[in-house]
Amino acid sequence: MIRHGRQATLQLRLGDDWFTVCDAARLQPGRGAAALLPDGRQAALFLDRDGRAYAIDNRDPFTGASVLSRGLLGSASGRTFVASPLLKQRFDLESGVCLDDEGVTVRAYEVRVGNGE
Amino acid sequence: MPDATPEAMPATTTGARSAGTAGATSAGTAGATSSTPGTRPTLLLVGHGMVGQRFLEALVERGVTDSHHVVVLCEEPRPAYDRVHLTSYFEGKGADELSLTPGGFMDTHGIELRLGERAERIDREARTVTGGSGRVYAYDTLVLATGSYPFVPPVPGKDAEGCFVYRTIEDLEAIEAYAKGAGRGAVVGGGLLGLEAAGALKGLGLATRIVEFAPRLMPAQVDEGGGAALLRTIERMGLTVHTGAGTEAVVTDEDGRVSGMRLTDGSELPTDLVVFSAGVRPRDQLAREAGLKVGERGGISVDEECRTSDPAVFAIGECAQTVDGKVYGLVAPGYAMAEAAADAIAGFPGSFTGADMSTKLKLLGVDVASFGDAHGTAEGCLDVVYADSRSGTYKKLVMDPEGVLLGGVLVGDAEAYGMLRPLTGSVPPVAPEQLVLPAGAGGPVKLGPDALPDDAIICSCHNVTKGQICACGTLPEVKQCTKAGTGCGSCVKTILQLLPQTGDKGLCGCFSYTRAELYEIVKVKRITSYARLLDEHGREEARGGEGCEICKPTFASVLASLAPAIGADGYVLEGEQAALQDTNDHFLANMQRNGSYSIVPRIPGGEITPEKLIVIGEVARDFGLYTKITGGQRIDLFGARSDQLPAIWTRLVAAGFESGHAYGKALRTVKSCVGQTWCRYGVQDSVRMAIDLELRYRGLRAPHKLKSAVSGCARECAEAQSKDFGVIATASGWNLYVGGNGGMTPRHADLLAQDLTDAELIRLIDRFLMFYIRTADRLERTASWLERLEGGLDHLREVIVEDSLGICEELESLMAAHVAGYRDEWAETLQDPERLARFESFVNAPGTPDPTVRFVAERDQMKPDLAVLIPEGALTTR
Ligand SMILES: Cc1cc2nc3c(=O)[nH]c(=O)nc-3n(C[C@H](O)[C@H](O)[C@H](O)COP(=O)(O)OP(=O)(O)OC[C@H]3O[C@@H](n4cnc5c(N)ncnc54)[C@H](O)[C@@H]3O)c2cc1C
């Protein structure tokens, strides 16, 4: 979760590498977008209203559908979350922890907004 | 460094850069009066500060950015930012965080912003303004929002290196840089701003002194006792205060840098840096030179609409002298002026006649409040004072000889402010000492609004008393009947406390209002931005946050139903609105369990030609969709990936289909039987009526989905009595039933009116739907709404048949605006390639379908392949 400048690209940390996804400007604050990762997994990327970027796994563990990127962002007690569009469970965007069922976690990725390589 | 003349404001010389040429005539064609570009009139705003930005937002809310070409000259190198919280720049808030201008705001609304461009001259005859770049800008309407400049007393040395003012981000940057090589700082001025600047210098690690000419701190706001309490607390923080002393000269060393100050009492103090914070003066120079009328002590004279002596020129904010003869140095009155000017320009009624100067602030961590006649200037008035220098608390109430509360000052503990301000002008219900003593020392533990007398003014904007408010039952009623709470809104909390309590009826964790209350707020305040609603009307702890998945779509829905009436865009995926929609509204389709979508084209009344049926069949076949007939006489196509939706809808739109809004909290279907045309029992043409109704109400956003049906005779084959509004033909017209429901809790609809003509029927349904949209809770179907409605069906009948509240005309006109503004969402979406980008499965791999959306065969069609959905690595259980 990093503040981004204008023409910056959004990158995810995969192991030791940074994977460039897209221009940060492609994301609309308050909404998400899905990215296809090299290993076939999907990440859900989000920007909050302050322009911070987040990434978690796109798969909704409760239904198995790859839809978290299509949920709505919200915040409660200072934590930014996405609510799954299917059954509305909320996931903390920094840790991936489900706020409605703490036993369930989705993977959270480190994100940075850089100038692209 | 600083100069007292507006010509040499610090921001004017930095960052000036020319931007584009559109909208401006070049220097060579000075005198051009045509409005460019196009035929829309040009509105030119000079000054993009706090009030300027609020003014632009008010223009957007009133649709003026559509009817006018809006150009903004902004002297500073960056768009408007939060000057009130300027000091937090030193606490690490960057310029971005202080910004008041949402990214994309100017582009979205077609506003031309010219950064670093200062207006130098107004030619009122030619209606042009010349900028510092030499460009000439033509205008039809000119709005001046040039704010104030810091007053710097004309003392020797005031321009030395090490002298600063405290107004812009550049000022703070300069102070911060200079402070690195300094150990001591001094602030000239012990008012609101001076204390703030002093706190900032202390935060930068400087040993800080405050020099105030008046005998006490904050002379404008607090009295002597209050100033003394403040003084003690501030000194305890390690600041040094000199009151009753003016600045005679700034002393400099041989390099011309500040080394000290000489005071009028003869004393001399060493300092490395001086910040002048001795008040502000309106920036009226530009207007003065253009021959506009200005006040005796400065400020551009304006009338109630904020119009200057030239009807084509307005002035708002700190640069204006308003009809009450005052120049307001606070932001809230400036905002009210921005709204008044925007109203005048948009042709709405609105005025600014003055503002309450009562304030409550936190300065250097100390609560300070003053209200009413804080200085006790009224003849024969008496004080009740409580002071405790140990805790730095000071409270004073000013009363007249009859015991009427006139005003007061609170320092150190301003908790009672919310209660005392409305009591002003009345005799308090308890002995005055009880109002100032701390709890346990004879003071009331907590005096709630219950203790207020009936004639206490609660809403000072509209002069509404407690008694008038208590005569109403709910907040929307209060606003409608008394207008209380519809001005600045600061009394809404007190109003809610006065109304009967039934626990927290708030919509969600972000809002303590119900959906119906938010509807009224959005309507009355013409709020078209979710962020604004949240930051101004959200629960304290939710302001500035993201909001949540409950209130965002609720606001989007309210906005969609009010859009035409408040001048917002009704297209549900417009700008910020898109980010608020539930996924179904966002993709204009219904998400199914594997993340695929289903599609329901509108088939009004269930009537469809063979050609259209064939198109549906072909589309389903070509895209491999599962098809099923719905309960609402339509056809649902399942299993589309999001990236297929545009191609599918391109074909459907080409064949004449429109969105069926199966994805929205909106009108779904108006079911019908075949009616008189074919049926031997039919007494009216139910199909025609169903089609008429469906086309009239299509796209109407509501608290929940809306279903309807029309039956051609009393046999009721269309099952109209199980619908939100159902129509049954009679020999002489139509009977209207409302509040029916099928589903989980079936409810038979109630007969609202009988034997209506076509026109009467439609008028009544218009009113019914709009009244429901206005007053229902989120996700409350008409059936439960009607059950909850106090007075039930009889009350409903009084309101929408007999017009007991006098709102029917408004309800009808809201519906008329909806009908006139209807556009097919899918056709509109397809027209814009940018909007189509969001349907791609992956931002980084356009054209790649989502591999997890897979299907297997069943009964000659396809169904979701659940095997690919079975949990795997992504889920870790702790
Ligand atoms: C440190 C600080 C703390 C404050 N705290 C509070 C508070 O707690 N509560 C409160 O109510 N108020 C507070 N205020 C006052 C508040 O900031 C002002 O009331 C408010 O900013 C006024 O808005 P405005 O748009 O009229 O003026 P400004 O915000 O000053 O904006 C005017 C803009 O016009 C530009 N301009 C001027 N002339 C020209 C020209 N010829 N061409 C182009 N552009 C021009 C200026 O550069 C400026 O950007 C505070 C102010 C400061 C500095």
From TrEMBL, chain A:
Keywords: 2Fe-2S, Iron, Iron-sulfur, Metal-binding, Nitrate assimilation, Oxidoreductase
Ranges for domain Rieske: 19-117
CDD domains found in the cross-reference section: Rieske_NirD
GO molecular function: 2 iron, 2 sulfur cluster binding; metal ion binding; monooxygenase activity; nitrite reductase [NAD(P)H] activity; oxidoreductase activity, acting on paired donors, with incorporation or reduction of molecular oxygen
GO biological process, one term: nitrate assimilation
Signal peptide: none
InterPro entries the record matches: NirD (IPR017881), Rieske-like_NirD (IPR012748), Rieske_2Fe-2S (IPR017941), Rieske_2Fe-2S_sf (IPR036922)
Classification via Pfam families: Rieske_2 (PF13806)
PANTHER family: NITRITE REDUCTASE (NADH) SMALL SUBUNIT (PTHR40562:SF1), PTHR40562
Protein known as: Nitrite reductase (NADH) small subunit
TrEMBL record, chain B:
Cofactor binding notes: Binds 1 [4Fe-4S] cluster per subunit.
Domain Nitrite/Sulfite reductase ferredoxin-like: 592-654
Positions annotated to bind siroheme: C717
UniProt domain Nitrite/sulphite reductase 4Fe-4S: residue ranges: 664-803
Binding residues for [4Fe-4S] cluster: C673, C679, C713, C717
Protein name: assimilatory sulfite reductase (ferredoxin)
Domain FAD/NAD(P)-binding: 44-324
E.C. numbers: 1.8.7.1
Keywords: 2Fe-2S, 4Fe-4S, FAD, Flavoprotein, Heme, Iron, Iron-sulfur, Metal-binding, Nitrate assimilation, Oxidoreductase, Thioether bond
GO molecular function: 2 iron, 2 sulfur cluster binding; 4 iron, 4 sulfur cluster binding; flavin adenine dinucleotide binding; heme binding; metal ion binding; NADP binding; nitrite reductase activity; sulfite reductase (ferredoxin) activity
Pathway listed: Nitrogen metabolism; nitrate reduction (assimilation)
GO biological process terms on file: nitrate assimilation
Low complexity: compositionally biased ranges: 10-40
Primary enzyme class: oxidoreductase
Sequence ranges assigned to domain NADH-rubredoxin oxidoreductase C-terminal in this UniProt record: 358-416
Superkingdom of origin: Bacteria
Reaction(s) the record says it catalyses: hydrogen sulfide + 6 oxidized [2Fe-2S]-[ferredoxin] + 3 H2O = sulfite + 6 reduced [2Fe-2S]-[ferredoxin] + 7 H(+)
